Amino acid sequence: MMLLAPLLCLTLLGPQPGMEGPRTWEDVELPVGFYLDLGTGTVSNLAPVEAVQALTWDGESLLGPALLSLIPGASERDRIERGEGGAPQPGVMTLVGSEWCYELGELGWGYLRVLAVGAGRITMERAHLSGEELLLSREPAGLSWRARPEGVELSWGRSDRESARWIIERRALRAERVGAWEAAGTSTEPWWTDAEVEPDVLMEYRVVLEGGGMGSRTRAIAGGVVDGPVEVGQGDGVNVLTGEVGGARVDIQLEYINPKGVQIGPGEGVLIRALVANGRDAWELPPKDTPGYGPQRFFLSEGRDLALYLPEGLYARLSLGEIKEEKAQLKLSAAIDGGRVLLPTPMTLGGEGLPEGGASVKASVPGGFLGLGLGEPILSLEREQGYDSEEWVFVTEDTTGGEALLIDPNPGITGPCRYRTRLRLGPHGPSAPSVPISVLVGDDGGEQTEAWIREAITELGQPDYARRQRARELLAVVGERARPQLLEVVSSENPEQAAAARELLSGLGNEDAVSAPAEALVPELLLKRANELGLDETALPGFLDPDPLVRAFGAFKVRDVEQARAHLEVLAEVDPEGFVRDVASIALLLPPRVESPGVRAHSEGLELIEVARELELMSALDPIQLADSLQGAVSEAEVWTRLLVLQVVSDLEASFGDLVREEEAIARARLVLALLEDRLEGREAPGSFLAAALDVVRDPMVRQVAARRLGERLFQEPRSLQEPLRVEPGDFDELASILDECRRSGVGETILVPAGVYEAESGSLSTLRTGGEGVHLIGEGEVFIHASFIIDEGAKVTLENLKLKPRSGVGVTILGGELLLKDCELSSSSMGVQATDSVVTLSSCVLGSPASSKGGRGGPILMRFVGVSALFARESELRTTASCLQGPRMVYLDTCALSSRDRSAVEGQGRLEVFCERSILRGGYAALVGAGSGVLDGVVLESVGHAALRLGENLHICREHTSGGDEPGELWSKGVSTDSTLERR
What we know:
The chain is α/β, with parallel strands linked by helices. Helix 10 (623-633) runs antiparallel to helix 11, helix 11 runs antiparallel to helix 12 and helix 11 (639-655) crosses helix 14. The termini are far apart. Helix content is 19%, strand content 34%.
């Protein structure tokens, strides 16, 4: 009996309902060994009757006599002409993105583009035209999309056809299963929103103009696609597509963090593979069947990357950014187009408006695409529909491997318009968009532009917000040409007009590195206002300084607010920098400085341990009398003991007059003194003693007063009464010898250092080592010391009026001692101060680390504290590219300015207690992190990257005198309420 060969026929993937006329554009899947009938679009295991209509795929090549090869790597071209391409080239290896034309004579002709090459089958886009038609058009020629709260919004260019109607199809891509195309909707406008899409499902859309032709397709996800850093905590799960942390979808989990890296665990259906070092910069990830992929955990350290394969069949890349406290920064990028190529973002170099109404935009494409077999990169231009609306439409594209000039001949508007660029490579992409640039469409550089400027200046003062905003947009795009007119209205009686002019002037030059920096405008603006009011600039230090931190610091340092009130009001009103205005406003509100009570003399001259023993025997106590005895007895104790006793003293004083509070304060005093007695008699280790004793008095205001009192003592340590030693001018060896003798003997000296430069001879050890009780080094005049200091354990050292500029190494290293820097400057290419179990005090000092010559981020930490260490600082300025302070147990800041370019001004370890008054904290990452308790009163925090403040549960804030955020007076923190306020006393 003869068995008949089975006949299997497959149609193209789903006809679209509602299409008028014959279907000309479809997707087709062609398995290995099957045939595509090019005339009918049927897929079968039998060849068509006419051999010329047969197309097969053997797993590597498309075979068919009617094929003409086009340019591999092109993608979604907007027009294809009949006969385009070279001579018939059957058997050429098929690549994703390859385009082909076929010719069937009277039966018509058609177009194929390879969409995907899978295991055993190939997916292609196919369009077929009749014999009379010579041109195949694609409309729209490109799609843009963005995530909206209500779903996914698609947008595309307008059609030249009247009454154009667009048909939208979609299908879901879930766990390597591709759903069937379904009709999703229609639109008569060049945009459409899918409000039914689920937030974690990858969708593919295609849009076609009703009536024929080809359309365009794109993939999108309602949550948006992450392409950059995501901050993740230990145990957090991450959605690799959207970057959502802690949501329902978990593709990777951060299992633990340590200073050297993080351990990453895969979610369900996710495979992970480590990338070798020499493959970190390649655009193409290895395919899934490459050895190394699996559901295993990986430890990810700095400088390593991971390749991810997601359940939808998508590839993604993961690398490690900075690790800060209990958070790690993960850098994610996913190729939602389904390929293995992760494209870099192009750089938009600039643009200009064309007098006839168009615009030109110049952009560049990074290199590195050779060897991928996908042709030249395609650079596309997108235009925003409405300034700052974030609604973008495709304009045009060009094939380039370097720089390209893209023209928008008809934006449909005049005035400010924003453009951005994206990158595609074959079927891969688009990349993340470039940073938008603004172009003034219709800019003639003459009368028309001048008229726009004059009109916009007037519009800045209008009550209608939309009109003011439009005027600000135009002036921001015009840039430097608007400076003279803006300067005329910075002191306008109209507050809206004046504020807008100040802000616009402060931003001029920021985008163009050739232009003068924005800071250069500040003296001009402030001086203009000061001259109008007849103010003397010497009344407020730094009033006209170009550096905003200097102006702000001067506002907090002023002693007589009434004398400088007019100057502060000018800064609060006119200064272009928001944080300077905040500082000036707070300086005007702060109450006059009140000095803490001085040290009381105790009549009986008891030692601290004797006071503790007498207290055990007494039943009735006067809290003020006890406070007097304690304050006198503790004057010579070490720092932490003094702090504890001063907390008790302040607690007793605050309770006076309230019998219940007096009893509670005396009970706390008994407990602290009992702990001190155990420690002094050696029954308790210092670590556990501090852990217990520092938590006894919990009132934040009491603890703040105690810290302030201790600070005042540390800032004014008495000088030695002994006869000072004087070093020969410039004699480094003599200076080193005297300091080393202090270390050996343990006896302190007062050492006078004449003006000059002190540096070891070339090849000698450039380190000064010292120790002892009461070493005091005083500079006379301009003293430069190019050496590092090492201070031995237990020493008490004061460095005064010195400029410390070590050529290399840590500026000052101290172990288990006390260091006072007074009227000093410290500038180190490495770490400034390394303190272990020590107390460092700064009085009127300037500390800084120069920016890296490589221009990179981060750099050395300015002051690192290890163990039980503390910092007390007054009227001091700290600047660095990394963190100013890291790791102290306690910080007291009075009238200080700390600025970190890339990291945080103050970084604690969760146990940090911070007392901050009349100070400025600025950080590129955050202003203050890792603080568990303390008080902020009269503080301005600023951060451009993240939350200004990371709150602990017991960190108390005076909301009246503290600000940090986007608006004046606003204080904000990620994920933690900032309702904590202080009870004023």
